[in-house]
Specification:
By secondary structure, the protein is mostly beta strands. The chain has one helix and five strands.
């Protein structure tokens, strides 16, 4: 078991606010770019675990190279020619490690994350 330093009241309030934000604003199975502490950036389908302090990224890809000329936000519309993605499987992250989310356009990311097949004929 790892020992975690005790948080100040202000830090605890920030963590509680982050947990509440994650619970309210992110739709399950939505494609999100997730920026984590220690410079990790993933993109994938999000599953929030309501009763736990963790988030699952299914079909996750680590964004090794953004390939943008105007910041990470450009990737919300889809990967760029210079973007390098590393398949990472399913990633489970503690919510305290999440810095922020960027909602990704499913159409722009369709080559990486094909839409779910809802059983209808193509």
């Amino acid at each position: 078991m790892t020992h975690q330093p005790k948080m100040s009241k202000g830090e605890a309030n920030i963590e509680a606010a982050k947990r509440e934000f994650i619970k309210q604003d992110i739709q399950n199975d939505s494609i999100q770019i997730v920026v984590l502490d220690r410079d990790f950036v993933f993109v994938g389908r999000i599953t929030k675990l309501e009763d736990e302090d963790r988030t699952i990224i299914d079909d996750a890809h680590s964004i090794r190279r953004w390939g943008t000329d105007a910041g990470l936000g450009q990737l919300s519309k889809g990967p760029r020619t210079e973007t390098i993605l590393d398949p990472s499987g399913t990633v489970t992250i503690p919510n305290r490690a999440i810095v922020f989310f960027i909602e990704a356009d499913p159409d722009g990311w369709a080559k990486v994350f094909p839409p779910f097949n809802n059983g209808s004929a193509a």
